[in-house]
Amino acid sequence: MLVLASVAALQSVSNSTTAFGRFGDDFKPLSKSMLTNGEMLFTQLRMSQVATVRTTPLNAVHVAEASYGAGRGSKVVLVSLGGYIDKNRIVHDWIGTKSLVPKATPSYIVRIFEPQVETVGPSKNHYWNVIVNARNRRIISTFTYN
Strand pairing of 98-100 and 91-92? Predict the structure, then answer.
């Protein structure tokens, strides 16, 4: 299920002239375990949302690696552009319906294999999943779920 993002593929995407041509095909669906037990949504962006993207996949990788992928043996195994919503921010009204659903933020999920990552307790999970805002290049969240 993992998709290896090669430098050549990222550069060919960057050479396109339109926003949708540059970023429209960068969405890769995530496994249910990466959606942190249903606590987040990650969906494909609409054309109007793609037009607001100001960060290339290569820049998102650089931002993620600067904080979480500097170890020896680390490698990027997935880069996906989509709409990120933290489901914990959805407001429910008194009758149980969803009254406020935040808008999806165009974001990259950069998955980095890091053999030296330390976890609490015994774990074979050696992946950082870094969510980078595609508009301003800031890290929104980081988690280590498979």
Answer: antiparallel
Strands (E), the chain: 40-43, 75-86, 91-92, 98-100, 105-113, 127-133, 139-143
User: Residue 28 and residue 81: Cα distance in Å, rounded?
Assistant: 7
Q: Return the pLDDT at 28.
A: 82
User: By the 8 A CB rule, do 106 and 83 touch?
Assistant: yes
The answer, yes or no, to whether residue 16 has pLDDT greater than 70, is no
Q: Is 101 helix (H, G, I), strand (E, B) or coil?
A: coil
Q: Considering the entire predicted model, what is its pTM? A: 0.74
Distance CA 20, CA 94 (A): 40
